[in-house]
Amino acid sequence: MQPDSTTPNPPHLRNRSRATWHRKASKPVSFWMLTLIAASLIHWALPNYRWVLIHMFTLGIITNSIVLWSQHFTEKFLHQPLPESARPWQLRRIAILNLGIIITLAGQLLHTSVTYYWYLTAIGAVIVSVSLAIHAAYLALQYRNSRKTGTAHRYGASVISFICSAAFLSIGTIVGVVLARELASPLKENLLLSHLVLNILGFIGCAAIGALMLLFPAVWRTQAHYERPGLTFSLLVTGTLTAAIGAGLGYSHMSAAGLAIYIVGLLIPAGSWARCVQTVLTDPRDRITFAAASVLCAPLWLIGSLIVLTYRTATATHSAAITLPTMTFLVGFAAQLLIGVMSYLLPTTIGGGPNATRTGLTVYDRAGLFRSTLLNVGLAAWLYTDNSWLRVVLSILAMGSLAVFVVLSPLAVRAQLGVIRKNREPLSPATAPKLNQITAGLATLALVIAAFGGLVPTPSTPVTTGGTGKTTTVDVSMMNMSFSPNVLEIPVGNQLVVNLRNDDDQAHDLAFDNGVTSGRINPGAQTEITVGVITTNMAGWCTIAGHRIQGMELHILVTGAETETTTNPAVQHKPTKPVNNGSDDSLAPVTTR
Questions:
Q1: Element (DSSP H or E) covering residue 134
Q2: Which residues, including other chains, have CB under 8 Å from residue 395's CB and lie 6 or more apart?
Q3: Mind telling me which residue stretches traverse the membrane in this protein (predicted)?
Q4: How confident is the model at residue 385, as a pLDDT?
């Protein structure tokens, strides 16, 4: 395989070619952003919506962004811009990549409609995998040529991180193909953790850290040393491989060791970034922006999530007991970093001089610290509370602060081009950070949380005295948006205890009319609920937004006085619809004592 070309264009033609290529290559990112927003609004109508939304973001938005900007930075870091003749082939490769993404998503959207859905998913994933492998190969060829021609720069280590990043996704998508099949536990949980490690830490993490080692001081408008990049990326790659292999083989301690190695690798550049922040805080001026806050908070979410995941992996008795911090990885780290970096890169790429660039940056920073507060504090509250409707509102505030980027982009481009064409005056820089926006963000979140009764509402205490003095214990499973059994016939006056297990692939809970609630239960987890003495009919339901309307209800029906013989209790439960969980619901354990 040969590189796209070896003879660059003259500078003025090169800049025009690069701008045209950027504009065309970034169109898929804009398309997937708009598609994700539209899909989020109708997610309840989408089959397998959680999987679809996550992969619409990771494959559609993140993958296209990394492919685009890793090529951009490779040329910049190696001082080896490609000629205009190379751009059409790059655009064709991006088109093929997006064809694979569309086929992959279509397979999962059709999984309830057609029997061959897995083959669609597999074909699409293979196209994505091959596309990223080819992308990695081209970056590697550019790096090799730069060493031959003597243009290789000391930032070449970041280019190596881009190469490793693309290779990790190429492997991670194949693991995803296997996961799309129905797998038994614990293989499913093992591969799921391996898939997350390869794609989040390997693909997104390596690319992000490789870029941030130079972008962080640029966004904060200060200087920093490019410290020990070789050691940093060696630890990141070693940690990713160790954690992914350990997870796939079911060796939790090996996986935890790999995650710990990865954390050590992150701490090396984090020290340099902390010094950048310290320098700016002594004279902040207009340097504390949404972009600056994003590139600071995103690595903190990554490190915090990794510490939690490392602990869970090291202490878990089996892989099914490991709860993956998916939302913190995707929203706190990946989405925040992407929007923050693009808010800086797009104006600087358009250029046009200091006044024009500053105007574009200023438009992207509208309500910047307010949005950053809603995002980071709102996300923390969203993850902490069990109140379903509060979680919905907090998620809208947090995600909305990112989605505003779609609205600001055309405004920023129009304003910046207006300055370049001398159709308008440039915007003046701020003289101090707008810290009042942080106060406004905290006040907004406080009002929202207070309106829902706080983050942790006071639980109701069940009535456990009186009645017959006997206890009825029922095993209830949650799966496929239903409870099984979903009708419980309980003798009047008996105390009811429910052993509740989540056999689904998403979180659920159970609340009763008397105020007793289970709290949120993650996939594979179980809990015991003391409902109290049953004297009247009551209902129970999943409080997570949208789940009750999809059928997650159960009913407690009171029966007459219990007979004296307790070895044959008059306790029955009759599921109103079958649940395909591999067992006969009529044999589910129900005991009275």
A1: helix 117-149
A2: 382
A3: 29-46, 52-70, 91-110, 116-138, 159-180, 192-219, 231-251, 257-276, 288-310, 322-346, 367-384, 390-413
A4: 87
Percent of the chain exceeding pLDDT 70 equals 89
The answer, yes or no, to whether the previous bond of 485 is cis (omega within 30 of 0) is: yes
Name, in order, each residue with C-beta under 8 angstroms of 549's C-beta and a sequence gap of 6 or more.
none
Q: What is the dihedral of CA 231, 233, 237, 242, to 10 degrees?
A: 40
Residue 12 has pLDDT above 80, yes or no: no
Task: Tell me the two tokens of residue 252.
Answer: 């939790």
DSSP 375-444: HHHHHHHHHH---HHHHHHHHHHHHHHHHHHHHHHHHHHHHHHHHHTTSSPPPPPPSS--THHHHHHHHH
pLDDT digits (tens, 9 = 90+) for 459-480: 555 665 667 888 899 999 998 8
User: Amino acid letter at 353?
Assistant: G
Q: What is the DSSP letter of 576?
A: S
DSSP state for residue 45 in the 8-state scheme: G
- Amino acid residing at 251: Y
Biggest CA-to-CA distance, the chain: 97
Q: How many other C-beta atoms lie within 10 A of the C-beta of residue 396?
A: 16
pTM reported for the whole predicted model: 0.82
Cβ-count burial 1-14 (b if 16+ within 10 Å, e if not): eebeeeebbeeeeb
